[in-house]
Amino acid sequence: METDKKCEDVSNVLGMVLAGSLTEGVRIKLASNVSTEQIKVGTFVSIRGELMRFFGVVTDVSLDSMDSSLTSIPPDVTNPFIHEVVSGTTVYGTLTVEPMLTLGDDKDPTSSLEGPLPAKTVPAHFAEVSIASETDIEFIFGKEDESHFYIGTPLDMETKLCLDVKELVKRSNGVFGKSGTGKTFLTRLLLIGILQNSAAVNLVFDMHSEYGWKGSSEDNKEVKGLKQLFSSKVAVFSLDEESSRRRGLTPDYVAKIGYGEIEPEDIQLLRETMGLSEVAAESSYNLRQRLGPQWLRDFLNLKSEQLLELAQEISVNERALSTLHNRLSRLKRFDFINESDKNDSVKQLLHYLERGMHVVLEFGRYGNSLAAYILVANILTRRIHDRYVYLKDRSSVDGIGEPRPVVITIEEAHKFLTPGIAGQTIFGSIAREMRKYNVTLLVVDQRPSGIDEEVMSQLGTKITCLLDSERDVNSVLSGVSGSRKLRSVLSRLESKQQALAFGDALPMPVVIRTREYGSSESYRELGWKDDRELAQQVKSDVEDLFGPDTS
Amino acid sequence: MDASADNGNRSSDLVGVSKGNYASTISPFGEIVEASTTYLLAQCHRLYAAPSLGDLVRTEEDSTAFSVVADVSTKSIDPSRRPLAMSQGEDTVDDIYNRHPQISRLLSTEISLIVVAHKADGKLFRYLSPVPTKIHAQVSICQFEEVRELTMSLEFLSVLITSSVGSPDDVVAAFLRTASVSHPDPKKFLVDAGKHIAAILAGDVHRLNALLRRIS
After folding, report:
1. A231 and A266 housed in the same domain
2. Is some CB atom of chain B closer than 8 A to the CB atom of A78?
3. Please, which residues have CB within 8 angstroms of residue A418's CB and are 6 or more apart in sequence?
4. pLDDT for residue A543
5. pLDDT level of residue B149 (50, 70, 90 thresholds)
6. B71 CA: distance to closest CA in chain A (Å)
7. Which of A13, A122, B36, B180 could, after both became Cys, cross-link B186 (CB 3.0–4.6 A)?
8. Does some domain include residue A532?
9. A500: domain CATH number?
10. Which sign does the torsion angle of CA A70, A71, A72, A73 carry?
11. Which residues are within 8 A (CB) of B168 and not within 5 positions of it... i.e. 6 or more apart?
12. Rounded distance, CA A340 to CA A256, Å?
């Protein structure tokens, strides 16, 4: 047994530390029995230093030779014997490893009470490097438990890699990746993690109706939504009841928005989407002042000659006002906007959230309209924000419990958080400081470069799938230590089921293969029970309550 | 050329050839006639009864010196009298020796040896002995077990590679080929040895290529 263990250790040894620095990463010479082809960028390694153990990520793999003349006069590798001899000696592979964490005691990782600390030095010369073991991963990322959610596995390993959900919900987070790389699957998993660990309640602005009830995978296979897996904990609100019913779902609530709920600042946010000039958008403030709370309804009901009169009255350029009128008339096409001032969608929504129910708001056919998405998300979020500020302030005065943290998931986030408007919109201020009021964002986007830099820097945990554009990569990695080296990892992710995760919820950046989602096995692992199991559960619950049925 | 092919060339005069080139019993084939700490010259007891190039041999004395056969030569015992051609028509070599039995007395076979290791107080050291072997010490071919023990580690290879006696590359190649047979996995032994050589000859690809080709 002892010998077996030793053999296993030896086979895991990759090589030894030869050079490097903390800023440039440590250079490791691969042992002669390890080929560069066996090691991938992003692999998680452990380095046994003299005083402590280091954990790091492979950020580069290169080929080297003892003598520079070898590149011009290669050895006679047609002879297999010579090939075998020179590989690993005269010519060899090297790795660049970014040391990320250190552990005090090198003998027994579990004996260190402080847990892993960020690496502030590099291992000594010739320190032995090996692929991190399952125990290492478990110790660093935590075991799957109440506060740790299994999100995937490290590259080429079967160990469960967990996110610290409690840390995750403390700040706003981001999921990035170009279209088709698995953002939605990843987001769905994060939502489930938050739901299962009861760390916070989710509010999902579900643009394409794929989180609540039935989504589909890339190969058009149907996958279950949150409501199907956790029906007692999730409520689905719908803006488009017809579409929801067509998909076999009876929404818990059909949301409506009144014209009176739309504020000039919502129009500001729609400027780009609706093609409004700055002057036109600004004039909505004048309209609000002049026409009162129902300004939009009254404004849209005006005839063109009345517009002229109004323009003069509030001293706004007449053409700008008529453009605004034209463009805003499009809102009339949205059936979920009505003239009633007795809509209680917001009240219902808050009611559900305060009870700890997770809410998915489906957009149905309006999902294709960015204007509808931006408008609704902004209006609802603003009201939630107000309510949470109130609740939090009250809790600090009255000493009653704090409001339950809420995580708001928005897609196409760059539309809400572009540099120009992030300073003014409610999403910008949530991303910047709302964690104080227990409201955070889960930003899902394919163009992170379109998001305000300040907002990006405030995101606690970022999980990013493959990104192609240089600007997007820069924006995601800005402010991260060792970002230059992580770039090479990020740009070489596989296009599916792989993501680079870093930030507060993880002790160090790591490439993950996203956990499987879509098979009944995977649903069961997440706690889903089929009808037969549910019936059995009910039966056993009844028996627990009333004793066995003797009739 | 592999190690087993080489076995066929062994002189039948050597006693006790059993495993590869190496003897199972100690039987001296010659004695030292010239000695320094690094280099030994041995004369065979019988003409042509020399071990092969690259064989590991030992001297019998208080401390045992291990050396590798780097060159074998047969010449007149009197440097001023060169042998003359004696063949008459279609004589074979044996015919000539039978007709002139004195020839065997006028010639001698000498072996140049490169010292690589020594044993003192029963312990093996893979570096030179502090004092040279005495003249007239008996020399015998190493036993199979000794070869394996000595070649468990190959740090002395650089001595063979950098030596100026004979053709060092051929000596190294022959030594490794014959020694490999004493190891349970000869191929692995040769690859490991090759890696050792590759490190020593890192700056000389041509020589490395040539040497490795001889080993393979």
Report:
1. no
2. no
3. A272, A450, A451, A452
4. 81
5. very high
6. 26
7. B180
8. no
9. 3.40.50.300
10. positive
11. B70, B160, B161, B162
12. 9
pLDDT in tens, A515-531: 888 777 778 877 777 77
Q: Which two tokens stand for residue A78?
A: 């047609």
Of the given ranges (A251-260, A315-324, A483-492, B118-127), which has the lowest mean pLDDT? A483-492
Query: Is A309 part of any domain?
Result: yes
* Chain A interface mutation, best of B176, B187, B191, B195, highest count of A Cβ atoms under 10 Å: B195
Contact residues on chain B for A81, CB-CB shorter than 8 A: 190-191, 194, 212, 215-216
Residues of chain B positioned with their CB less than 8 A from the CB of A90: 198-199, 202, 205, 208
Asked, for residue A551, whether it belongs to a domain, the answer is no
Q: Quick one: A269 and A352 in the same domain?
A: no
Complex ipTM tops 0.95: no
Distances in whole angstroms, Cα of residue B117 to Cα of each of A88, A429, A503, B57, B146: 28, 79, 59, 11, 12
Of the residues A64, A72, A82, the best mutation for testing chain B's interface (the one with the most B CB atoms within 10 Å of its CB) is: A82
Which neighbouring-strand residues pair with B141? Answer: B57
Distance CA A15, CA A8 (A): 15
* Same domain (yes/no): A202, A269: no
Q: Cα(A52)–Cα(B94) distance, rounded to whole angstroms?
A: 75
Residues A227 and A113 occupy one common structural domain: no
- Of A314, A333, A352, the position where a domain reaches its end is A333
Burial label, A292 (beta-carbon count in 10 A; 0-12, 13-18, 19+): exposed
Q: Count other C-beta atoms under 10 Å from residue B89's C-beta.
A: 4
- A112 and A76 belong to one structural domain: yes
Domain total for chain A? 3
**A350, A430: one domain:** yes
Say yes or no: A174 and A316 in one domain.
no
Same domain flag for A225 and A269: no
Distance of CA B212 to the CA centre of its chain: 19
Which range of residues forms the domain containing residue A402?
164-256+343-514
Query: Residue A190 corresponds to which amino acid?
Result: L
Spatial distance between the Cα atoms of A494 and A466, rounded to a whole number of angstroms: 7
Q: Which is it for strands A161-164 and A148-154: parallel, antiparallel or unpaired?
A: antiparallel
pLDDT over threshold 50, residue B6: no
| pLDDT tops 60 at residue A9 | no
